[in-house]
Amino acid sequence: MKGYLIEKYTDMGNAYTTMRLLAEAKKAGIDLSPVGVSDTALVEGILMHRGKRLQEVDFIINRYKYGVIKDCINGLAERQYNKLEGLNRFVNKANELISLTGCSLCFPRYILGRQGISYEEIADLMGVPFVAKGLLSSQGREVFLISNKKEYQEIRGKYGEEELLFQEFIKSSYGRDVRFFLLKGEVLACMERRAKQGFRANFALGGSVEKYEINDRIREIGKEIYKKTELDMLGVDLLFGEEDYMFCEINVTPGIEGIERACGVNAAGKIIACAGGR
């Protein structure tokens, strides 16, 4: 059995998730080859990777979210994890919120808008401070806590005409959240993340992680999100609301270092077994 692991670069160095997936594939007797989008070109309809034509494979694991070349590579396999249509849709944070409306999930109040919306309009609806998010980023890189009009104007100046997502700040979850790993609708593992400093608790930003007990409510949320998205592999982030968990966002290409270290689970092995049809 053969598959491609789509990454930004073919050589991802010591990137934890990449190395773990390749190691588990080798252990399972699966020929999994990393293919970097940056090292691939579409030449008159033919996908060329480092001077060689890419061939059809049994499956693809998507670890990169952007661009047309990534879409073209996905056409070389019938099975994709995650499926291309859903991956392209749910990479956008606004689409996540719109698509999950109607679930039993609790959501922070939000506004999606461009530069025409004023600081006063946002503050009146959500209070101050409030959160501003870029729509396509991950690992907490484009998440900002806005406390005054000057900070809002700086963010608007940085993003210009781009749409931004503005959300209510959930004070009860300051500096901490819950991340669980969802595999085909089942919660594989769950951890609590705590910020080293500030309000963002992402492991990629230096936050600490520890195992968090999976409970019935988390399982219910996981099943609902799987039903709505139909995506096989997801990282789901929840905030600590005063009465219930509140939806933060989903990650369609989640890293596994934090969840494996915190929970002692072989997430890479489970992913490979899923992709291999086992």
What does this structure look like?
- The protein is α+β, with helices and mostly antiparallel strands.
- It has three domains: 2-81, Rossmann fold, CATH 3.40.50.20; 110-169, Dna Ligase, domain 1 (2-Layer Sandwich), CATH 3.30.1490; 172-275, 2-Layer Sandwich (D-amino Acid Aminotransferase, Chain A, domain 1).
- Helix content is 30%, strand content 29%.
- The chain has helices at 16-27, 68-74, 84-90, 93-100, 119-126, 149-159, 216-229, 257-263, 267-275, and strands at residues 2-7, 31-36, 40-43, 46-49, 52-53, 59-62, 79-81, 110-113, 130-133, 143-146, 164-168, 176-183, 186-194, 208-211, 233-240, 245-251.
- The strands form four sheets. It has a five-stranded antiparallel β-sheet with strand order 14-13-12-15-16. The protein has a four-stranded parallel β-sheet with strand order 2-1-6-7, with helices on both faces.
- A hairpin with a 4-residue loop joins β15 and β16.
- α1 packs across α9.
- It is globular.
